[in-house]
Design a protein that fits this description.
The structure is a homodimer. The first copy, chain A, has about 325 residues and is α/β, with parallel strands linked by helices. Chain A is built from 14 helices and five strands. In chain A, helix 9 packs parallel to helix 13. The structure holds a DNA duplex (30 and 30 nucleotides).
DNA sequence: CAGAATTTTGTAGTCAAACTACACAAATGA
DNA sequence: TCATTTGTGTAGTTTGACTACAAAATTCTG
């Protein structure tokens, strides 16, 4: 279907923005309509053609012409588009303006930043690398995730999705254990090395060893670096910030989404039975959550996290 | 008091969710309408009453009754609400991922899904709750993060940002240690309880104990649950839909972004470094928007960059 | 398993909203 | 100034949204 309905939350989508922007090009009475809408957009969607015309002090056809002028099919279309734009608008009602408004701005900026970055990563992911990674992971008898620091979090996240991968998974977040685990790998095993910078020495070393042992090595990284030379498959989720100075959160988010894609794809590639198993697992989890059963032991790397479940698949 | 601090909107706003949820309560022919809408929501907003009736194989009044049944004023209202929901769910939403899906499509859907959800959360976050949380965290001599399983990852992530919080932070991801840590808290200390479901018993219990000890308790959760009754500040990042396709990842992302917001805001209040960070983010954002998709420069701290850096420390 | 009571659905009709054709008014330019 | 262009409103038409009621289907009861 509309696979290419690529959404960038672009300005063009936001009708309010469009209206404000085309304000100078409008005729005088049309502008009255525009003003009226901008003044209380929320109320405008509720209005009818006649109502809005009256509220703006113009005639009904003028409103229709206005709709056409800003690129709508008609008044109906205008209302729909307006409603759509309004959905993104903040629930402004009680966010007072003042010194505290900084906070709202921070919230908005951080969301924007993360959203923009994800959209960017989406557009720049290499499909072939994903495909190769999925193939390797699907066939792997054993999977190791390597990551230090913030990337260690991603590694653990990946490890928790092991039911989707359908193979024993471990996450190594310690430099030494990473090496030991890498040394234990065999051909067909897969090592996933996660590093935002692509330079972290321990991770690079672990990847090298894993490769020497004949394992398939997959890199999930935020920028090209030494790591890639020891990995046969490179998934580069380049983010807009790659300095270590600001918000490493986005690199984590990107990596986690990549993991999500891999695990989902592997799971789907397997068979329907695998999906049923996941559904069953989710059911068990919901029992655990409500405290009706003893929860499975959880040691930080344990099989299933009681909370939120590893992968989440299969509609009910 | 916690419940008051929260907006009473969210999932109820998402008409698709509402429709899917009230499916069993509908009469047979009304359900035909529902199915038709869910099947192609994008097309449904374009349709007229008669068109939709014909497409569903029912009469026009049935469609109107359907609208009333799901809580709309009439067909017009239905269309507006639908458009509003579609603003978020537009591209993916109810198109479940099946084995037949091409890999590229899976990638796109997962990205879209996560993006839509983040946008949704963004629009529905309660600014007052954020404000209260920032205030509490800024004044806290000690901060504990509680989370199990997938939410444990978020807790660790939060803990790694301790430089931004400017106070000793711990992350407890084990049921028992969680309780012990909670018991050690004192007034003014802050406990942040993270649970997507809001029901995880251990986390709820830890929150209760923390509250009994006089600490300020902050909940970061994906849905209302028992947890809220033991938390004085509730940050509810409700996700777009509950079909559980990818909800776990989405909830983690949302929670991490919330953490990011909190840490940034706290840091901003503390020193000027936080302000620089915001300024930088704004710059990056404007670059993205203007379509100049260059990677930002790497000036700053030189090449080292210990793997991904714990917490996005601002430059000295 | 009738047959009544109730619920569900469609038919026909009404009202109002959305759109169109056209004519008048205002503004612009020679 | 008048002619031409542009802008705006009036009046009329079409269509879509909704309502009243009757037919069909379902359920309930004896």
């Amino acid at each position: 279907m509309a696979t290419e309905a690529v959404r960038t939350t672009a300005v063009e989508d936001n009708l309010l923005e469009v209206i404000a922007r085309s304000l100078p090009d409008l005729r005088r009475s049309e502008r009255r309509v525009a003003d009226r809408i901008l003044q209380a957009p929320q109320a405008a969607v509720e209005m009818t053609l006649g109502t809005l015309a009256a509220a703006s002090g113009v005639s009904e056809p003028t409103v229709i012409r206005f709709a056409a002028a800003i690129g709508c099919e008609g008044f109906r279309d205008l209302r729909v588009k307006l409603a759509r734009s309004l959905a993104f608008a903040r629930t402004t009602s009680h966010s007072a303006i003042g010194p505290a408004d900084d906070l709202g701005e921070i919230t908005g900026k951080i969301f924007d930043f993360n959203l923009s970055n994800l959209a960017w990563v989406r557009a720049h992911l290499d499909p072939d690398a994903i495909r190769a990674a999925v193939a390797a992971l699907s066939a792997a008898p054993r999977i190791e995730f390597f990551g230090l620091g913030a990337s260690g979090i991603v590694a653990i996240d990946a490890q928790q999705k092991f039911p989707l991968f359908g193979a024993p998974c471990s996450a190594q977040t310690d430099g030494h254990q990473m090496l030991m685990a890498a040394a234990m790998l065999a051909p067909d095993d897969v090592a996933v090395a996660i590093s935002n910078t692509g330079t972290t020495v321990d991770v690079v070393r672990a990847a090298r060893i894993a490769q020497e042992k004949g394992a398939t090595t997959i890199a999930i990284t935020g920028s090209r670096g030494p790591l890639l030379s020891h990995c046969s498959i490179a998934i580069v989720a380049e983010t807009l910030e790659n300095t270590d100075l600001f918000t490493p959160t986005v690199s984590r988010l990107s990596a986690m989404v990549v993991i999500d894609i891999l695990s989902t794809a592997v799971s789907l590639g397997r068979n329907r039975a695998g999906q049923d198993r996941i559904a069953e697992m989710k059911r068990l989890l919901s029992d655990v959550r409500s405290g009706r059963q003893e929860r499975p032991d959880f040691n930080g790397k344990g099989p299933t996290g009681p909370e939120d479940g590893p992968g989440g698949m299969a509609p009910e």
